[in-house]
Amino acid sequence: MDESDPQTQVRxxxxxxxxxxxxxLLKIYYDKAFPYDKMFDWLSYFKVSKKQNRLQSxxxxxxxxxFYNREFSFTLENDVYCxxxxxxxxxxxKDALVSRTPHKIDIGAIFNIPxxxxxxxxxxxxxxxxxxxxxxxxxxxxDNVRTCxxxxxxxxxxxxxxxxxxxxxxxxxxxxxxxxxxxxxxSGRRGIHCWIGDESARQxxxxxxxAVTEYLFLATGNEMGGGFDLGYPLHxxxxxxxxxLSKRFEQIVIIDQDLLAHEAHQKKFLKLLPQNVANELxxxxxxxxxxxxxxxxxxxxxxxxxxxxxxxxxxHDPIMIKLVFTYLYPRIxxxxxxxxxxxxxxxxxxxxxxxxxxxxxxxxxxxxxDIQNVTTLSKVINDIGNSKDxxxxxxxxxxxxxxxxxxxxxxxxxxxxxxxxEKEQSTDF
Length: 429
Ligand SMILES: [Zn+2]
Fold this sequence. Notes:
This protein is an alpha+beta fold.
């Protein structure tokens, strides 16, 4: 077969189109496409042992203790789960991925010793020391407010819920906690992950992780009961979230999801309203057809009640606050965030069910993230087949997002080193 013959290349590309996920393709992906050096830069946080300082590690070939003491876990074919794996350097990781071709890779904590040695030490001295704080949001937690898809399906319309969650959480983490190194990743099917790479986040205890999680977590949407009161005036964080989300409520919930046109959703909506508003509205709403018509009736009814002084003034609109927080506030999986020892799927895994790559994305442009055209394993394999210089165009954008995150980590690490040296010099006289 002549590889340089364009006809042959087109044919081989076409053949791959229908194969979404096979061990053979995965092996090629791990061999040619997985970004080992970037993953090493990330997980070593540029804490690399210097060549002259051989004593830093008792084992040969360890490029970074920080990387080596990190737990990886693999889920192999047939759901065989292997924990406490660790790797000395990018080559070591590559050898393992290519030979074992895990269907899923998870990343855990950095321990006091290399995790693979956990059985040959006393259990009490095997301790997780550091890990990024993480957030996990799953689309299935929005099943009670979406009409376009259910279960594992996600489309542009329901991605809007994820885009809202991303922007609210990103804002809180940067504004209220001062974190600046956030990596946002699409999980490959129906979820998103956020990794906080700041040193102060990596060093947080479980108690601190719980405190940050509780600050963000509201059970407003998960139950849909509306039985919550955020108080007045709103907490400044809730106020900011409200300001952001309320502008999007009508487009996402009323128009795109066409929610009120569905009887069950209309029922839930009415339950969230004060009794007098719901009574006034119920029979009129049943006569309207579309969600938008019903929403207009709601607004008209509210205006009427405001005018007659039967509800609070519009300046502080407790009903709208309830609706916005119930439908649009982020629904985070709190347990994932609270534990230092919680593993989370690695970026650049391939989701076995969709063939999609877990790609990092930019939270600033999350509204435009094209969920239905995320790069797949077969696209990557096609690009590898067509590439003359080893570059993989379909991964370019997500690798650039990842690199931006890494550049920030590198700058932080250099600043730390500089401060440390200055401190050393000032005391060294
Ligand atoms: Zn959808």
